Amino acid sequence: MGDGTTDDLYIDPEDDDSGSASGDEAPNVDPDQTGVDEYTNESPSEEAPSEDSGPQPTETTPSGTDGNGSSGGGGGGGGIIGIPEGVEVGDDSPDEAGEDPDSSEPEKSQDPETPDEELEQEESEDEDDDDDEEEQEPKVVQYSDPWDNVGWGLYPIILKIKERYGHEVDTDYHLVPVREFVDPKEMASKWERDRLRHKMPIDTSVWEENPPESTELANRAYLAAMHQGPNAAQRYLRRLRTATMVEGTNIEDKEILFELAENAGLDINRLEEAWDKVEPRQTKRDLNPPFTKFHVDGEEVTQSGYLHYDDIVDIFDQSGIDSEEPQPLSGFVTEHGPVATQEVMTVYEWPQDRAEEELQQRDDIVPVEIGVGTFWTRHKQANEGI
Predict the structure, then answer these.
(1) What span, in angstroms and rounded, lies between the C-alpha atoms of 176 and 121?
(2) Distance of CA 72 to CAs 77, 87, 161, 254, 289, Å?
(3) Which residues pair with 171 in a beta bridge?
(4) Dihedral, CA atoms, 284, 117, 136, 132, nearest 10 degrees?
(5) Over 220-260, what HEC string results?
(6) Is-contact 302 81, C-beta < 8 A?
(7) Predicted model pTM
(8) Domain coordinates of the chain in residue numbers?
(9) Are 159 and 149 in contact (CB under 8 A)?
């Protein structure tokens, strides 16, 4: 096994010798770059989506908790509900002129009075771009943001959906409006409660040492990243979540956001160009993301908070969507890494001791300590026969 030093942790997914292919091409990133850290797998910047295309499928992660948090906490226990009234959750893709949909003026119509009306309004907006589609492909969409710790905690389940159902089911993210944080102490307690459920690494120190006031700058950064394509934006979203929830960093700072973007392989010049062109949605309502919408067989189901994989499987099974085995471990770590042990356990349905044994016995996979957690990534030199 490699020594796990950061200089060895840059892996080009296309160099994977495990026999499985990654969905991303190799980026134009200097392996010796420095940033906030140097462990993120490299991936290329992508062309911005066209005007009539929404965000393309990427990794997602639903989330949820006991529903007792303050505004800005994770969701409740997974009940089937509508998205909260007054919350606009339209398409996050930039349009052809480089403007983001969120920069448009507020609608003059009244807010929907019920969750069902909210869903109908949001779907009507989405259908404007899909008028020519007779039947919508199966899709899982998570409505969340970079500070959603339950969204972070649902990465294992979303990656399992991607690995086992990705041949038929797309996954995607949409951004919820800006959230404000009024009680850091309660947020720290909520993150700790959520951790007991999802078991992903969590560092609550940001709420004690340097708490954010809102999600505004992180939301703006994500929308700006969408101008480099949905895959780049999702890669960036994961990096932002790792910084906040595993490393205890307050990312509501433009300089930090740009350092993290560079670390995630984004084009900083393009990010700067898009920064002032986007405008995050605002709302006066208290939000409790994530919300996850399932589009299957022309039907839609929206779930709030944490998701149980068995419930998701029931939805797919009823639609005749068959599960496949996940790709070999090396390919999974190369494509999605650095990955937490919990993600490997969930995707491969292994107990912790088996997951750790499988990871440790591979010379092409190395552990790396990130914040309060141990993660796993492909060893760069493994591709060179070392």
Answers:
(1) 15
(2) 16, 13, 26, 21, 7
(3) 140
(4) -100
(5) HHHHHHHHHCHHHHHHHHHHHHHHHHCCCCCCCCHHHHHHH
(6) yes
(7) 0.70
(8) 6-20+327-384, 77-318
(9) no
> What is the reported pLDDT for 282?
94
Residue-level length of the chain = 386
Q: How confident is the model at residue 90 (pLDDT cuts 50, 70, 90)?
A: low
Is it the case that residue 220 has pLDDT exceeding 70? yes
Query: What is the per-residue pLDDT across 161-194, written as a single tens digit (0 to 9) for each?
Result: 999 999 899 999 999 999 999 999 999 999 999 9
Domain 77-318, what architecture?
Answer: 3-Layer(aba) Sandwich (3.40)
In this structure, are residues 294 and 140 in contact, taking their beta carbons and an 8 Å threshold?
A: yes
Q: Tell me, what amino acid is at 6?
A: T
346 pLDDT exceeds 80? yes
309 vs 92: which has the higher pLDDT: 309
In this prediction, residue 380 carries a pLDDT of: 66
Instruction: Specify the pLDDT at position 300.
Output: 86
Cα radius of gyration rounded to whole Å, the chain: 20
Please compute the mean of the pLDDT values over residues 212-237 and round it to a whole number. 96
- What proportions of the chain, in percent to the nearest 5, are helix, strand and coil? 40, 10, 50
**More confident call, 51 vs 328:** 328
Q: What pLDDT does 7 receive? A: 35
| Fold: same for 6-20+327-384 and 77-318 | no
Please tell me the number of Cα atoms within 13 Å of 320 on its side-chain side: 1
Q: Which residues contact 273 (CB under 8 A, 6 or more apart)?
A: 98, 227
The residues, any chain, with a CB within 8 Å of residue 68's CB and separated by 6 or more, are: 190, 193
- Residue for token digits 């809102």? 214
Show the tokens assigned to 142.
Answer: 């998570």
Answer yes or no: is pLDDT of 47 > 90: no
Residues 6+ apart with CB under 8 A from 251: 146, 212, 217, 218, 240, 243, 244, 257, 260
Q: What angle in degrees, to the nearest 10, is found between the helix axes of 254-263 and 230-245?
A: 120
What is the fold, at CATH topology level, of the domain defined by 6-20+327-384?
Arc Repressor Mutant, subunit A (1.10.10)
